Amino acid sequence: MIEVQGLAKNYGSFAAVQDLSFTVRPGEVLGLVGPNGAGKTTTLRCVAGIIPASAGTVRLAGHDLRTDPVAAKRALAFFPDEPRLFDYLTVRQHLAFVARLYNVADHEALAQPLLEELEIADKADQLPGELSRGMKQKLAIACGLIHSPSVMFFDEPLTGLDPLGIRRMKDSILQRARAGAAIVLSSHLLHLLEEVCSHVLILKKGRLIAGGTIPDVAAQFSNGEPGVNLEDIFIRATGGTEN
Ligand SMILES: Nc1ncnc2c1ncn2[C@@H]1O[C@H](COP(=O)(O)OP(=O)(O)OP(=O)(O)O)[C@@H](O)[C@H]1O
Ligand SMILES: [Mg+2]
Looking at residue 12, which CATH number applies to its domain? Predict the structure, then answer.
């Protein structure tokens, strides 16, 4: 469960995110959409505790991120758009290291199926410098999943993956939602979000423009027209892609 109330983030005098509230229940996948600079990455970094929010409360799996940060962070995984890896650890050593940080028992039994799910098992003994961009992204995802998080934040998880990788990533996200995870992901790939997300939030200039289930948001912007998709909604809601 992800509960966000009145979230705001200022960079100096610039308000990057203002008064944002949303809830993601177990089994739900929330898509965060909006033009470049809308505040998606800033929101994800704040709710994952990477950067401090300027205002608001965030509860993850029942733990307040400010007053109980270790328990809240134990429940979550954050997947940044640019994966950060350790130059001198192999793929397998990455998983072992992260598993140890999170006190994961029997991580070796968990690591192999994860590497296979993400199709990097044949690279298990290689260093990040020997991996392609998409493979690095898959390794970062494997590292985030090793402690079986119940709350997941993905920033642009599909960018850089090949078509089969995209399909598998979608399946992995849906499978974890079905197993009870609460998931937020940001993406500009709206047709893919439509297949994965139960709910969407549309942000523009740090403010919430619309939110709810995809049919609810579609109804809000369709003017009674049938067959309105998320791309149509996005363009109507944000007035194009300019800031
Ligand atoms: N560290 C920072 N210092 C100052 N301003 C920042 C910082 N990080 C982000 N911003 C500003 O905050 C706003 C929101 O940025 P953010 O990265 O959250 O957008 P985004 O919705 O993720 O965009 P994109 O679709 O391009 O990834 C932008 O105007 C950006 O310039
Ligand atoms: Mg971003």
Answer: 3.40.50.300
